[in-house]
Amino acid sequence: MKTTFGKQNYMILIAGIALVILGYVLMIGGGSDDPNKFNPAIFDTQRITIAPIVCLIGFVTVIAAIMWRPKNTSTDAK
How many independent structural domains does the chain possess? Predict the structure, then answer.
């Protein structure tokens, strides 16, 4: 039985999902416990720039994993 995805597809997919999760984890925090106080940590470079870039790379990696087609090494290409 031949599957649509190979082992390499699943490895790329897992790496992409891990990058997306890492991006969302990087966005966590920066809030304030007291609603009357402003915490400028919410606008850190980590939360505004790095985390969305990591998420975007993760989503592109997931799409690449879905679209990835391994080279056909068998001689019975039909």
Answer: 1
Domain assignment present for residue 47? The answer is yes
Q: Does residue 15 sit within a domain?
A: yes
Q: What is the pTM of this model?
A: 0.80
Structure tokens at 17: 């999902």
Average pLDDT over residues 3-24: 94
Is the CB of residue 44 less than 8 Å from the CB of residue 61? no
Residue 68 in tokens: 């990835």
What is the average pLDDT value for the chain, to the nearest integer?
88
CB 48 within 8 A of CB 10: no
Q: Is residue 21 part of a domain?
A: yes
Phi, psi (5° rounding) for residue 73? -95, -10
